[in-house]
Amino acid sequence: MSEIIKGGSFLFEYRQPQDVFTREDISEEQQMFAGVATEFMQKEVLPRAEAIYGKDWPVTRELLLKAGELDLLRIDIPESYGGLGLDKVSSAYVGEQLAVMPSFGASLGAHTTIGTLPIVYFGTPEQRAKYLPKLATGEWIAAYCLTEPGSGSDALAAKTKATLSEDGTHYILRGQKMWITNGGFADIFIVFAKVDGDKFTAFIVEKGPGVVPGHEEKKLGLDGSSTTAVMLEDARVPVENVLGEIGKGHVVAFNILNLGRLKLGSRNVGGMKFALNNALSYANERQQFGRTIGSFGLIKRKLAEMAVRTYVGDALVWRTLGMIDRMLETVDASSPMQVLKAIEQYAVECSIIKVWTSEALAFVVDETVQVYGGYGYSKDYPAERAYRDARITRIYEGTNEINRMIIPTRLLKGAAKELLPNVEESVSDLLDRTMIEFRYEGLAFVHRVAANLKESAKLALAALHLNFGDKFSEEQEAVALAADIVCEAFAVESALLRTEKLVAAKGADAAKLAIELARIYANDAAERATSAARNLAAVLPQPQKLDWAFERLALPKMINTVAARRDIASALLESGRYLW
After folding, report:
1. What pLDDT shows up at residue 414?
2. Measuring CA to CA, which residue among 562, 488, 476 is closest to residue 527?
3. Residue closest to 344 by CA, chosen among 472, 251, 417
4. Is 290 exposed, middle or buried (0-12, 13-18, 19+ CB in 10 A)?
5. Which fold has domain 9-141?
């Protein structure tokens, strides 16, 4: 893949398989490095599970130090500050391996991403030289302190204050932060506070007097990670520890959350594979009515749909990572702001990844519990913990509701607005067509669905702008419906391109089941998008026959997904593991 693809362009441009990065493009070197993480998790972390879940933080610290010795903490840190400075694909692929224990993955991920990257991208040379080498080894562990008791999604409503000392050498921080991962044992805290009560600013705060972790939260999931409040009781922070510019803390916060969403995608997909493999193992072993439960149609349907969503999640995550890495090749890697601006272009894709993969993971772990039946409800089996651990992914790194707002907002406020169709003309054109040709064979079906979803998404965005102008964000329900259509358009096209690339590499016969995975998802995505479009048309003050236009873009009939799901499930059960 050589062409640079701009963020958000997927609605307006058509791509060829060779234009996109897929899981199959991950290099041997990247696989070997991820193999180090896999071995570390299997041989070092999982055997210490009892201590980790028992909140024995010295054990977690010890394991993070070992991770540092294996270079797993320094991937995103520049070489000049003790890191490896590797690409985002390598970083995300390592992150995927952590999904076998989300609690430890949360500890490591919070340290390497939202804890360390603010200093990587916004720190002064002196700050980077002081902190990054020790963060790279695990000698120091980082935490990110944004949320407060009264400000979650509304981060800029924070009440923590920073007041300059009389001698001008320190800021005095007073306030409370909530839900801080690694809060119980971190050495370095990225803290957001308002200078003089109004200038939202980021600080690097070292553990010490005035920095007081609260009790460990009693959580639904991720109970092997430390989550506490952090009280700032006249904590003295040197003025040289201001991170970025005074009053520009939102730039730090939102850019780092964008990176967090990107990294979360591969971990979510890893969690889906882990849960599905457990479900397959159980379905092959559990006997009912004289046969394995995997032989029953309704269990096969569950296993196949879990595989469908895992396959599509893989496609959209690695497509985005590939686009970002290609863009980063064109900027000065030694300029953090150039790197951040490059990544920020893909804010829409990062928000799609956050929403789509977290909800797909929720579906997979829920169905895993159902496959296990009563045993899925027992703490003695793996389904129960995976179910609990997955729930937070729809909340942190920006709730899915916030990210659904971001997707249309970024598209409508960016250059994409100029590319949107004229609603009246587009509707007229659709209604003038006697029919939209639908081919149902092979990937031709997925091509048509992808094209129609893109047209529906562009029409939905244009209708939002026409009806509500610059105040469209006040109509959250309508915005969310448009976001869902956009998400489905990106997911279907990503699955299509990945599958076409597989067909080109292996042939249609070898890629037969991958083709079916893409067809099943396209079929069901079309129905979900049609429902969202109908609802959107119903709430618009000036519908302009949008409902008729959306109907023209809907599927005339469904494909037979029952037989396809049976074939996919049979292949999975025979292999005993996820195949793609």
Report:
1. 79
2. 488
3. 251
4. exposed
5. Butyryl-Coa Dehydrogenase, subunit A; domain 1 (1.10.540)
Q: How far apart, in whole angstroms, are the C-alpha atoms of residue 277 and residue 294?
A: 13
d(C-alpha 257, C-alpha 350), whole Å: 10
Please give the full DSSP string across 117-128, using - where no structure is assigned: HHHHHH--HHHH
Give the model's pLDDT for residue 389.
Answer: 98
Cβ neighbours around 418 below 10 Å, total: 7
Low-confidence stretches of the chain (pLDDT beneath 70): 1-2, 415, 434-435
Per DSSP, the three-state class of 571 is: helix
Q: What pLDDT, on a 0 to 100 scale, did the predictor assign at position 448?
A: 96
Q: Pull the structure tokens for residue 158.
A: 């924070």
Q: Say which residues have a Cβ less than 8 Å from residue 223's Cβ, sequence separation at least 6.
A: 53, 55, 103, 388
Instruction: Identify how many contiguous H helices and E strands the chain contains and give both numbers.
Output: 19, 10
Phi and psi (nearest 5°) for 222?
Answer: 50, 40
Residue 378 corresponds to which tokens in the numbers above?
Answer: 């027992």
CATH T-level assignment (fold) for domain 250-401: Butyryl-CoA Dehydrogenase, subunit A; domain 3 (1.20.140)
Q: For residues 420 and 141, what is the distance between their CA atoms, to the nearest angstrom? A: 46
- Rg over alpha carbons for the chain, rounded to the nearest Å, is 24
Spatial distance between the Cα atoms of 98 and 580, rounded to a whole number of angstroms:
19
The per-residue pLDDT for 550 is 95
398: left (phi over 0), alpha (psi -120 to 50) or beta: left
Q: Does CATH number 1.20.140.10 belong to domain 408-575?
A: yes
For 388-447, write each residue's pLDDT tens digit: 999 999 999 999 999 999 999 999 987 677 889 999 999 999 888 766 788 899 999 999
The type of residue at 459 is: L
Tell me, what amino acid is at 565? R
Look at residue 415 in the predicted model and tell me its pLDDT. 65
Using CA atoms, how far apart are residues 391 and 221, in angstroms rounded to an integer? Answer: 7
Write out the DSSP string of 210-224: TEEEEEEP--SS-TT
* CATH class as words, domain 144-246: mainly beta
Q: Report whether 230 contacts 212 (CB < 8 A).
A: yes
d(CA 402, CA 115): 22
Contact by Cβ (8 Å): 244, 122: yes
Mind giving me the DSSP string for 60-98? HHHHHHHHHHTTTT-TTS-GGGTS----HHHHHHHHHHG
Q: Which residues, 6+ apart, have CB-to-CB distance to 457 below 8 Å?
A: 11, 482, 485, 486, 488, 489
Residue with tokens 């279907």: 492
Domain ranges of the chain: 9-141, 144-246, 250-401, 408-575
Active site (catalytic) residues: 397
Q: What is the DSSP letter of 227?
A: E
Q: How many CB atoms lie within 10 A of CB 401?
A: 15
Report CA torsion sign: 252, 219, 109, 364.
Answer: negative
Asked if 250-401 and 408-575 have one fold, the answer is yes
- CB-based contacts of 264: which residues, under 8 Å, 6+ apart? 353, 354, 357, 358, 393, 397
Give the SS3 label for residue 232. strand
Render pLDDT for 3-33 as a digit per residue (tens, 0 to 9). 899 999 999 999 999 999 999 999 999 999 9
Helical axes 88-97 vs 28-40, angle rounded to 10°: 30
